[in-house]
Amino acid sequence: MNLKYTAARGTKDVLPEAAAKWRYIKNIARQVFNTFGYEEIITPMFEPTELFTRGIGETSDIVTKEMYNFTDKKGRNLTLRPEGTAGVVRAYLENRLYTLPMPLKLFYTGSMFRYERPQAGRFREHVQVGVEVFGSKSPYLDAEVIATVVTIFTKLGLSGLTTQLNSIGCKECRPAYTAFLRDYFTKNSAGLCDNCKLRAEKNPLRIMDCKEENCKKTAGGGNLPGMASYLCVNCKTHFEELQKGLKLLGVTYKVNEALVRGFDYYTGTVFEVHSEKLGAQTAIMGGGRYNDLVEEFGGDKTPAVGFGFGMERLVAVIDALGIKLPLENTLDYFIVHLGPEAFEKALELAALLRKTGKSVKLLYEEKNIKAQMKTADQLKAKKVIIIGENELKDGVLLLKDMADGSQKRVSYENLIQG
Questions:
Q1: Do residue 241 and residue 351 come from a single domain?
Q2: Can you give the residue range of the structural domain that contains 343?
Q3: What are the residues whose beta carbons fall under 8 Å from the beta carbon of 240, sequence distance 6 or more?
Q4: Does any domain span residue 198?
Q5: Separation CA 181–CA 188 (nearest Å)
Q6: How does pLDDT run across 98-137, given as a tens digit for each residue?
Q7: Which helix (H) or strand (E) segment is 208 a member of?
Q8: Is residue 35, in this structure, part of any structural domain at all?
Q9: Do 367 and 400 reside in the same domain of the chain?
Q10: Distance between alpha carbon 147 and the CA centroid of its chain, in Å?
Q11: Strands 304-310, 283-289: parallel, antiparallel or unpaired by DSSP?
């Protein structure tokens, strides 16, 4: 075979076996979202570029290095969405969702695009599942949002995970910490990458999220004083009550003062869930509060909180942990047909069974019974229907249960009805 085309670098095909895992995970997530009172929202795959530069922050890695930008035929600057929050906030305002009862709890699934170096569990196109909640500043809502994703992971059988938690303050208290970091990193700029040298002046908090090893060392490997001692009374109280809420909800956690997340829109609470099974990049989800973003986009001041996790990274963890998801075999019947008349009868029967909601497959070429049974076994059919000369003559079907190997003759009517 002379292969002419392959998938673009940083993308991958999700083949049927893996797609079954994705489907199961999404179904579990939807069930959990339903129990927590979330509703689904679907936003466009591309948005005006300014939506992301303004929301995520001009000094973030995503904006400076990773966005897929393009110009359409009218000269408009557009970007394939690199994350989900900005688009949901835009939809919240444009469609006047703020007129609905609060808090408004939304969830979404969809592809995100970032031009970054592909590595384990990280792709240039990845599918994200996320939630956004608007209209409440309660720390107990933060706790419930964290409990939502922990519930999803628990139902999937994940263990050995660590929920990390921090507060990065607000507009009132963060400037003092930012000034401290600016002074520190300016004095130690020799150990910073070129991007972080720029951040040292514009947004030194982003340096704490840099993945470059030299920048991590310059930042003290997580030993640099954190935001905790700079928090104002409101932020400190919020963070303490958040931890109380997590304990009430039975969520275990640890405070990580080096945790800042990579987006400028976060305020106060930030959190991640980590797995040691992923190698260098251990986070499988992240989120936090963004109380200023709705106002930044032209709306009224609206508290909000959310999270997102990538399907690829989550599946990698599930596989690394050896978790066998209870995937259902969806093929109810495989029809074996012997001869032209039996094939016609098989087509008719398949159509009738599909109308009752059953899944049915059959071969469209004439093959012997051994070859057809081998195909049925490969497809893991639950039952096989055999139509041969004797069955046609007697007006019945031979039904074989593939689980126990038992066989019985049944009428067409009983099969369809039962």
A1: no
A2: 333-417
A3: none
A4: no
A5: 10
A6: 999 999 999 999 999 999 776 766 789 999 999 999 999 9
A7: none
A8: yes
A9: yes
A10: 16
A11: antiparallel
Tell me the pTM.
0.88
- DSSP strands (E only) in 102-203: 104-113, 125-134, 162-167
- What is the torsion angle, in degrees rounded to the nearest 10, for the CA atoms of residue 123, residue 129, residue 133 and residue 139? -80
Q: Which of 320, 352, 373 is the last residue of a domain?
A: 320
pLDDT at residue 383 greater than cutoff 80? yes
183 located within any domain: no
CATH code for the domain in which residue 394 is found: 3.40.50.800
**Domain of residue 267, CATH code:** 3.30.930.10
Mean pLDDT of 363-372: 96
Residue 1: Cβ-neighbour burial (10 angstroms; 0-12, 13-18, 19+): exposed
Closest Cα partner for 238 from 352, 129, 367, 143?
143
Looking at the structure, do residues 372 and 277 belong to the same domain, yes or no?
no
In angstroms, the first-to-last Cα distance of the chain is 46
Q: Who contacts 211 (Cβ-Cβ below 8 Å, separation ≥6)?
A: 281
Quote the pLDDT of residue 41.
98
At 335, which amino acid appears? I
Of 320, 345, 380, which residue is a domain's last?
320
**CB-based contact 123:86 (threshold 8 Å):** no
Structural domain total, the chain: 2
Structure tokens at 135: 């209209």
CA 299 vs CA 98, 100, 381: distances in Å: 9, 15, 54
In the structure encoding, which two tokens stand for residue 231, read together?
Answer: 């928090």
Give domain status of residue 66, yes or no.
yes
Angstrom distance (rounded) from CA 55 to CA 150: 27
Amino acid at 76: R
Return the closest-CA partner of residue 289 out of 268, 258, 313, 259.
268
Give pLDDT tens digits for 20-71. Answer: 999 999 999 999 999 999 999 999 999 999 999 887 776 566 776 789 999 9
Whose CA is closest to 375, among 354, 357, 361? 361
Distance CA 344, CA 253 (A): 62
Longest dimension (CA), the chain: 93
**Is 146 buried (19+), middle (13-18) or exposed (0-12) by CB count in 10 A?**
buried
Residues 398 and 294 reside in one and the same domain: no
- Contact at 8 Å (CB) between 126 and 62? no
Q: Which helix (H) or strand (E) holds 335?
A: strand 333-337
